Amino acid sequence: MANLCHLGTASVTRQLQDLATHPYNLAREGALQADGRIEKYVCSSGPFRLLYSTQRVDERVLDGLQQLADECGLVEQFVRMRSGEVMNRIDGFECENRQVLHTSCRDLFTANPKSPEATAKMRAELDRLKEFLGDVERGAIVNERGETFTTMINVGIGGSDLGPRAIYEALKPYGLPGRSVQFIANVDPDDAAEKLAQVDLSRTLVNIVSKSGTTLETLTNELLVVNRLREAGLDPAHHCLAVTGQGSPMDNPEKYLRSFYMYDYIGGRYSATSMVGAVMLGFYLGYDQLLEFLEGAAIIDYTAENRDVRENVPLLMALLGVWNHNFLGSASLAILPYSQALHRFPAHLQQCDMESNGKSVDRQGGTVNYLTGPVVWGEPGTNGQHAFYQLLHQGTEIVPVEFIGFIKSQYGSDLEVKGSSSQEKLLANLLAQALAMAVGRPDENPNRNFAGNRPSMVLMAERLTPQTMGALLAIYEAKIVFQGFVWNINSFDQEGVQLGKILATRILESMKGRVESGAEVEKRFLEAATTGINTTHDG
Ligand SMILES: O=P(O)(O)OC[C@H]1O[C@](O)(CO)[C@@H](O)[C@@H]1O
C-alpha cells in the first residue's frame, strides 16, 4: 500500500498498515463491552450522534487516523474550499478549474459567511424565490383559468434530480396542504408518460433543472412536457420554470415563467441546497421550512471544521471509511437507513460519492496506486433484512455498513403490537443488525455459525425533520469531500461520464443511417444488438 496522502508522511500510512494486520476483534468474548467502549465511541455533530463501537478500531487506530487527518490537512482544506479556493482542478492539465462553493448556499445564518460573494448571490436568488412563492400562495400567479398551482413536475437528471428527489421523499409529511411533486428524469418515455398521467397539467408548474442546460435527457423531457402542455391548450411560458447555470443554453428567461440560477462553482451532485433543490422544496415545504433545511446543513458545515476526529462526525465517518476500505480491504459500502422516508437517499449518495471519488488520477495527474472511492449501495431497513442481509452476515465479502436511524417516527401515528410500537421494532432491528454483524454467534453447525467481526456504524437523530435532513445531507457531503482529500483526488469533476455520452450520440447517428467515419464499431454493435428483434414502432 502506497502513501495514501500526498501531503502527509509515509510513516502514518505504515503505522496504520501495521495496525491493520491485527485490527480490533469485535467477535472476541466481551470485546464490545470492554473499556466502556460502547459509551465512549460516540461522536456528536448537530442533531446526529454517531455510534462507532462496532467498528474495528481502538485508541491506537483512532490516533493514527487523527494523524492522517492532520498530515493531510483535511479540515484546513475543507475551510479553504469553503472560502473559495479553486479546488476543482488537476494541476498542469486542462480541467474545470473552478471553486467549490456548495456550502455557500447555506452559509446564510451568520453575519460573516465564508464566501461572502457566493452567499450574497444565493441570498438574491432566495429573495426572488420567496417573492415568487408568495405570489403563487396568494394567487397573484395563477393558471390560465385563474386557478392556483398545486403540483410541480421536476424535470432533471443526476444531481438535478437525485438529491432533490431524495429530500422530497424524506420530507413528505411536511408538505404544504394540497401540494405534491412528481419527478421525470429518465429519457425512457415511459417515465414521463407515467408521471404525466398522474397530474392535472393545468394546475402544474414544470421545473426544468439543468446546470449545463445541455443534458440530452432533460432537454428531451422538457420538449415532451412542453408538447403536452401545448396539446392541452396551455401556454408553456405560464407553467415552466428553469433552474440553470448563468449563460447556459437554458438561460433564456423569456421562455420561462421564472428562471433561477445556480453557479459553476456548485457541482451538480452537491447542488441540492442551491436553487436546484430550493425551488422544488420551497414550493412543496414553503419558504420557512426550506430555510430550516438549509440551516441544518449550515450547522454541520461549521461543526465539520473541528480538527478533532473524535468530535467531528463527517470527518470521523470519512476516516473510518478509509480505514475499512484502504487498510482492511473492503470494496463496497452499504448505507442502510431505517427510515422508509430515506428510501431514495442511498441512490443520491451513490452519485454524490461514486461520481466524486470514483477517480484513478490524483490532483497532479498521476495514476493513484491505492483504492479510491468504494462501491456505494443501499436500501431501507427492515426491507433489506429480508433481501440481502444474508450476504452481510455470512457472505465471503465483508461489507461495512452505515446505519441511519431515528428515535421517533415522522407522522407519530403508530400501533402497539405484542408490547411494542412499530417505531420501537424498527429501532430494535437496526441496533440488532449492528450487534449481530459485530459479535456474531458461534454454532457447531457451520451453516448456522455467525463469525461476526463485521464493521458498521450507527448514525442516530431524534426525528427526520427538514433541519435533520439538511444536517444529514451535509454530513455525507463533507464525508465525501474529506475522503477525496485523503486520496488526493479531485472530487469535483466527472470526466468519466463523457465517453458514454459521445458514443450514444454516434449510435443515434447510426440508427438514422448516418455512419460517421470512425464509428463503424458503434454501427456493428448496434446491429448485433437489434438484428432479429422485432422493432415495430408504436409511436
Ligand atoms: O444538471 P445537468 O447539467 O443537466 O447535469 C446532470 C448530471 O449530469 C452529470 O453531468 C453527469 O452526466 C452529472 O454530474 C450531473 O449531475
From TrEMBL:
Main location group: cytoplasm
Pfam families xref list: PGI (PF00342)
Alphabetical UniProt keywords: Cytoplasm, Gluconeogenesis, Glycolysis, Isomerase
Enzyme class label: isomerase
Molecular-function annotations in GO: carbohydrate derivative binding; glucose-6-phosphate isomerase activity; monosaccharide binding
Catalytic center residues: 355, 386, 501
Keyword Isomerase tagged: yes
UniProt similarity note: Belongs to the GPI family.
Function: Catalyzes the reversible isomerization of glucose-6-phosphate to fructose-6-phosphate.
NCBIfam families membership: PRK14095.1 (NF010695)
Name of the featured protein: Glucose-6-phosphate isomerase
Species whose genome carries this gene: Desulfopila aestuarii DSM 18488
